[in-house]
Design goal:
By secondary structure, the protein is mainly α. The protein is built from three helices and no strands. It is rod-shaped.
């Protein structure tokens, strides 16, 4: 019984850590998108008067696309992690005794 409680606690904790890491990754990806968009805007502004060449503009546009793709992947990972915790929440709701045990060991429940 004790091993089962510890295993459940460890599983919830590991999933929570994965979700926390995914949130951090989404925030980082959003910052990368903003930075890439800013760089693309600057490259286009510099291209107009001839200070930058077309390759610079194309590369920055590629960087915006790549950053957007990374952001989408990070959001997908976050959604996946959230659904795992949601399924665990359903299992906890279905077993009030297990919920009480998780609260007892300090695991916050939403």
């Amino acid at each position: 019984r004790r091993q089962g409680r510890q295993a459940a606690r460890d599983e919830v904790h590991a999933d929570w850590q994965r979700v926390h890491a995914a949130v951090t990754k989404v925030r980082s990806a959003a910052a990368q998108v903003r930075a890439a968009q800013h760089a693309a805007t600057l490259a286009k502004e510099r291209y107009g008067p001839g200070v930058a060449n077309q390759i610079d503009v194309i590369q920055t546009e590629r960087d915006v696309f790549s950053a957007g793709l990374s952001q989408s992947q990070a959001r997908g990972e976050l959604a996946s992690g959230g659904s795992v915790l949601g399924r665990q929440r359903l299992a906890v709701d279905a077993a009030p005794r297990r919920a009480a045990q998780l609260r007892h060991v300090g695991m916050p429940l939403p």
